[in-house]
Amino acid sequence: EPRSPWCCLAWTLVIGTMNSLFFLLNLLLMFVIFTIVLLPTIVVVYFGFQCHSQVLHSSAHYCKSILDDNSSSALIILGFVIMSPLIVVAMAIYCSLARRLRLLMCFQPYSLALYKGGRWCSPGEGGLCCARGCNTQLKAWV
């Protein structure tokens, strides 16, 4: 049966807040994974730009004794070349983790706010959380 307008509004806010929190959790997880996987690229490009005389021209000891302009240019190029495969690896890690934890199944439909009797799932019924109906065969993507 349909909920009253005020109850529907309250449930809409609860579901919207919960979906926003799950979105932020997914975003944070993606940020952490991409930062860890892309750390070699970040370091290589940073040192390349830091020691190049046309960019920052740092007076650090390693810039004067080890890296000249040619090696700094090589570091910059190497950093951008290894970025593409590392982005693919980071996305594969995120997708497999999100699929294993069923993070995309945590989003609840707004139809739970409209009608009484919508079933919320417990974590024991198929992962961290599950969608309406608790179908363990339901997939977020194929």
UniProtKB/TrEMBL annotation:
Membrane-spanning ranges: 21-49, 74-95
Organism name: Menura novaehollandiae
Family statement drawn from the similarity comment of this UniProt entry: Belongs to the TMEM88 family.
Gene: Tmem88
GO cellular component: plasma membrane
GO molecular function term, any single one: PDZ domain binding
Membrane topology according to the record: Multi-pass membrane protein
Cell location: Membrane
Keyword terms: Membrane, Transmembrane, Transmembrane helix
The protein's name in its UniProt record: TMM88 protein
